[in-house]
Amino acid sequence: MPLEVPTSLRHLTDEELVARVKSLAARARGATALLVAHLAELDTRDVHLRAGFSSLFAYCRAELALSEAEAYNRIEVARAARRYPVILERLGAGALNLTTVRLLAPHLTAENHSQVLESARGKGKAEVEEIVARLAPRPDVVASLRRLPAPREVPPERPGSPSLPPAASPSPISIRVETIRITAQPPPSRPVVAPLAPDRYRLQLTIGGDTLEKLRLAKDLLRHAIPSGDDAAILDRALTALLIELARKKFAATDAPGASRGPTPGSRHIPAEVRRAVWLRDLGRCAFVGKDGRRCAERAFVEFHHLKPYASGGDATVSNIQLRCRRHNDYEARAWFGGGAVGPAAAARRSGAPKTAPQPP
């Protein structure tokens, strides 16, 4: 079946486009489950050896054109599926994915596999890692500080400049080569947060010398409260103090707030008490709810959103204000006022686009 070019899809309504996407995703899941089943059988034979490959992994890379990650995941899941065939059914149904099964496979037994696989239904990688931490808890890591190697210096290459051999013979022409040395900075590394056991996590990150001095000073000042100088306890104290300070700045919070003036009718300003109440009610998370009842999970860069816009007479009350991520805030503004991709022309051919979001649960 020839692939459709993107322009041929523009006539579809939202419902038709979503139906096609879901159908294609279901077919892809079914194809993946079938491929895993066939790899499980292939793994029991010597086909890859007869084909000149030393491993099934090498065979999948060369003959099936799978990436390293794709080959590794599928082979590990295939071997788990040989032991527990229910995995194939759940892969095809979309209840599990390859990464989930690969993470759980070493911890599945004849006694626990049904319960463990069911507990992972629809979970993301971070949630599955927490399940693994419950199945195989690891001890807390020992707090440590170590100096990282100094950045190495490398000479830059000059495009078009001739390169001399390291042991060049003396030449009657004296050439002066100026080398500018630059510091090669390693790519910034993201902090590592990994679950070890229920409610226990490993945090690994790189800090600068000034931050280290602040940590040491905090240890000295807190010796009366934390005699052990435990880094985790000090980090918890620091984050608690930071959140209190951020709340005071962001929402004008005080330990004993005065009497509320309440929202001024017709004013765009959202009073601090309204913002605090909305933030607590929506738990600092976008409160947009889609047609299928799914609430947006975004917590970063959330904004205060008027359900009935200020320009249309909406007041800054707790009942009329909700949290929205930037994308949903922009989407609902365009949907209400009929601009951009969700304006009247688009709405005429895309049925079902909501003008306002349902109330959060």
Quick summary:
The chain is mostly helical and 361 residues long. Among the domains are: 6-123, no CATH class; 207-251, no CATH class; 272-349, Orthogonal Bundle (DNA Binding (I), subunit A), CATH 1.10.30.
Low-confidence stretches: 167-186, 340-361
**Can you count the helices?**
13
| Number of β-strand runs | 6
Multimeric status of the protein: single chain
Overall body shape = flat
Helix content: 40-55%
Which series of helices and strands comes N to C? HHHHHHHHEEEEHHHEEHH
pLDDT averaged residue by residue: 79
What order do the strands of the largest sheet run in, or round the barrel if closed? 1-2
Query: What is the CA-atom radius of gyration, in angstroms?
Result: 29 Å
Percent of residues in β-strands:
5-15%
Q: Between the first and last Cα atoms, what is the distance in angstroms?
A: 44 Å
Structural class per helix/strand content?
A: mainly alpha
Largest sheet: 2 strands, antiparallel
Structure description:
The chain is mainly alpha-helical. Among the domains are: 6-123, no CATH class; 207-251, no CATH class; 272-349, Orthogonal Bundle (DNA Binding (I), subunit A), CATH 1.10.30. Helices cover 42% and strands 7% of the residues. It has helices at 14-42, 47-50, 56-63, 68-83, 86-93, 98-104, 113-119, 125-135, 209-221, 231-251, 272-281, 326-337, 344-349; strands spanning 153-154, 182-183, 192-197, 200-204, 302-306, 321-325. The strands form 3 sheets. A two-stranded antiparallel sheet has the order 1-2. Strands 3-4 form a two-stranded antiparallel ribbon. Strands 5-6 form a two-stranded antiparallel ribbon. Strand 3 and strand 4 (200-204) form a beta hairpin. The longest helix has 29 residues, at 14-42. The radius of gyration is 29 Å and the shape is flat. Residues 167-186 and 340-361 have low confidence and may be disordered.
